[in-house]
Amino acid sequence: MKYFLISLFVFGLVAVSRKAEAQREGDTWVIGYYSGGSPNYSIMHLDFRSGDIALNWHFDEVMHMRETAANICDSDGEAILWTNGMEIFGKNGEYIVDTIAYSDDILSYWNWFNVDGIGPIGFPYHDGAIILPVPDRVSEYTVLYHFMSNVQQAYDGIIKYLEARIKVNADTTYMLMYKDSIVGEESFYSGTLSATRHANARDWWILAMEATGNKYFAYLLEPNGIQLHHMGEVDINLIEGTGQARFSPMGNFFARMDILDFDDGQNITLFSFDRCTGELKYMDQFNTDFGFFTGVAFSPSEQYLYADDNNHLWQWDLWASDIDASQKLVDSFDGFEQPGWGPMQFGPLMNGPDGRIYIVPPAGSSEFIHVIDRPDEPAADCRFLQHHIDLKVPNGRSAPNLPNFRLGPLDGSPCDTLGLDNVPVARWRFEEDEPGWRYDVRFTDLSFYDPEEWHWDFGDGGTSDEIHPIHTFENGLYHVCLTVSNPYGQDSVCHWVEILPVSTEEDNAALSDDLSIAPNPFTDRIAIKSKRGDIRSTTMTIHDMHGREMMSHDAAPVPVTLHVPSWPSGMYLVTISEEDGKVYQFKVMKI
């Protein structure tokens, strides 16, 4: 039987603007559950720098991640700071601050989640922390997080928001400038912190809300620090419940999820937001069935709002004349259970830098992630893929709270005062349009800073001016380029797209160069890659030169990057067994 492969790897990059390199703060996510050096438990860095998700296991980062999760990356897109709301970490899991939001009260939230024999396991509030770059201060970051005095107040709200300031030195050492500085103190805040760029493209709006009531608090992060800009009121009285609260990608909308109880279900409240004035206005409210640890997110174009109730994923059209009446069911949970654990339902939502929306199951720990592959399409066409990504190691409901770092100014607005024009940056990814048919390739534009025109050159004589075109190729290697432009400038970026013929299944089984390991020799990490481009399960063992087993995992994903800085220098033998019986062996040297 004949079939074909499309290579989904980036072979060449011919044009990357300096501006693009500086907007990678959200290109890697830090998630996980617990890591103590075992390959069965690992902190994971989900790496989107290539345009598609890659799984990086960090065995040596001994820490915990739970619902409260936030991180930020350096200019190369590598995670440089992250927090679970109780501690702050840096590269390679280095402890920067071992106690934030701390109270020595025996009933304090901190002590409640500081487990004997394990340590701080992280706070159980989604969007309870966020990390932002300090404007005009190179390598300075503000870490914002909530404070709750004791567990008996868990459903009454947060009583403080606090700040830590971190300086990352040129040698990647860290300096704690201060911690637990009070940003705001009220009775009581909601449990979420959300941020979007100010219309001047330099400063940040930070939004907090009253737990139950109609007040909101608009803070502004400027070069001289964080100040309360104003307190406002919205035309609805909100009732406190746990759940996410997120800005839309372009900052024009804000949604808050409040999970109430079995009788009242959960409320998804929609607001408009003015990036110039920081004004929040109530638009609509929707109610669904009750769920645990559910979530909310907007599509990249801001046309669609998504939310779930564990068993259903819903979509609303924000461009419709009647948004409430536009509600559509995307899909219902298919009943899939993680072997030996439980059902992998729908939980918190995250906007990926690859234009997809990712959904974490609400189970206490899970190894799967659901994906909305095309969130800017109507419900019937958005290609929702249940339990699509198998992480192979547990994730403790971590859903990082990251703002859209690729948001520019509102050109021509009264707040566009710094001359930071939206010069567009070109980015894109590609995939087969329909599974199993490799000739029809779908291109997804990921460009930012307000492109207004798109021009695709597919390298075979074909072109398109669509935003997300579909193009039919023949077998071969094609240099595909996208140019985006607006009145302020243009940018181009090119990748190689390879359509590979494979004559028979037998020939494919005998393909010896499918897997590769790089770099070799390596220092602290090795990347195992596959030309096939799919994420699949393998059995992987690694032995040192003395025959000692350094790692053994019967469900390791490929591709994967292994972070092993603690291993001694020397030669290692990597053995990888595929489900079809194919065995690969590599000798690698650690220096």
Q: Secondary-structure map with pairings?
A:
Layout: E1 3-7, H1 18-21, E2 28-31, E3 43-47, E4 54-58, E5 70-73, E6 79-83, E7 88-90, E8 94-97, H2 109-112, E9 114-115, E10 119-120, E11 129-133, E12 140-147, E13 158-168, E14 174-189, E15 194-197, E16 204-209, E17 213-222, E18 225-238, E19 245-247, E20 253-261, E21 265-273, E22 280-288, E23 296-298, E24 304-308, E25 312-317, E26 328-332, E27 337-338, E28 342-343, E29 349-351, E30 357-359, E31 366-372, E32 384-395, E33 428-434, E34 437-445, E35 453-457, E36 463-464, E37 470-472, E38 476-486, E39 489-502, H3 505-509, E40 515-518, E41 525-530, E42 536-544, E43 549-558, E44 560-563, E45 570-577, E46 583-590
Parallel strand pairs: 4-44
Antiparallel strand pairs: 1-39, 2-3, 3-4, 5-6, 6-7, 7-8, 9-10, 11-12, 12-13, 13-14, 15-16, 16-17, 17-18, 19-20, 20-21, 21-22, 23-24, 24-25, 25-26, 27-28, 29-30, 30-31, 31-32, 33-34, 34-37, 35-36, 35-38, 38-39, 40-41, 41-44, 42-43, 42-45, 45-46
